[in-house]
Amino acid sequence: MVDATKTKKVVSSSNTRKKTVSRSRYSKAEIYEIFATFEKDNPEPEGELNHSNEFTLLVAVVLSAQATDAGVNKATKHLFQIADTPEKMVALGEDKIREEIRTIGLYKNKAKNTFLLSQMLIEHHGGQVPQTREELEALPGVGRKTANVVLNIAFGQPTIAVDTHLFRIANRIGLAPGKTPLDVEKKLEKVIPPEFMQHAHHWLILHGRYICKARKPACDRCIIYDLCKSKEKILKGTN
Ligand code: SF4
Question: Which residues are in the HhH-GPD domain (predicted)?
Fold first, then answer.
């Protein structure tokens, strides 16, 4: 027979553990200080994907899935010279787009998506990049993360695009622990002070790319070292 008291205790203890694991390890004041530090260091952070307008930004972000920004920039340098609008991209055709981006991983599928999304922009949006998440996510190759990047950079919306760097940092330092990117995105939206929302994802991406790296964080060069509560924090001087 199941002991109801014991069962209740287990459930309750598991719930408590869940709550503890999912909460930010930082107080409001500490989170404010983290982002104030990022802002002081880099007041106007920018993405590293080259683009000349909203359309080329959208294409660059679609191409950047599972690829480095540097690799995408190399491939799009010529592509964007000859096709910087949906009309020119459609005129170029899928085969030629594929040739242009063949150095990027998954290039066949990405060429197809680039062609199809250009067609859709012409047919449904008058050749313009739409400004809502729903419309963006309806385009081929565009998921939530891509839509968030475009909404943030092209249209100045305070969105948080959770890529591999944000997901790692949010969990590693306990800023917004979560099991899925969406979970982390929702938690970051809750804990980041509104005045820092616009640039937050850029600061965190750059921090993850160059300092709080996946294999070995460069803690000795970290500007939030004193605030960081990560168990993976490496004591200064021992890096
Ligand atoms: S101190 Fe180390 S672990 Fe903490 S945020 Fe900085 S680089 Fe990452």
Answer: 63-210
Q: Is residue 109 part of a domain?
A: yes
> What percent of the residues of the chain are helix, what percent strand, and what percent coil, each to the nearest 5?
60, 0, 40
Q: Which pTM value belongs to this model?
A: 0.86
Closest CA to ligand 1's atom 8: 212
> What's the Rg (C-alpha) of the chain?
21
Domain membership of residue 128 as a residue range:
54-153
Residue 155's H or E segment, with its range, is none
- pLDDT tens-digit map of 8-32: 333 344 444 444 457 899 999 999 9
Q: Compute the distance from residue 187 Cα to the ligand 1 centre, in Å.
A: 20
d(CA 13, CA 7) in angstroms, rounded, equals 10
Answer yes or no: is the C-beta of 224 below 6 A from any ligand 1 atom: yes
Phi, psi dihedrals of residue 229, rounded to the nearest 5°: -115, 25
Number of domains making up the chain = 1
The dihedral through the CA atoms of 134, 136, 140, 145 has a sign that is: negative
Tell me the CATH number at 75. 1.10.340.30
pLDDT tens column, 103-124: 999 999 999 999 999 999 999 9
What's the CA-to-centroid distance between 154 and ligand 1, angstroms? 30
Any domain includes 137: yes
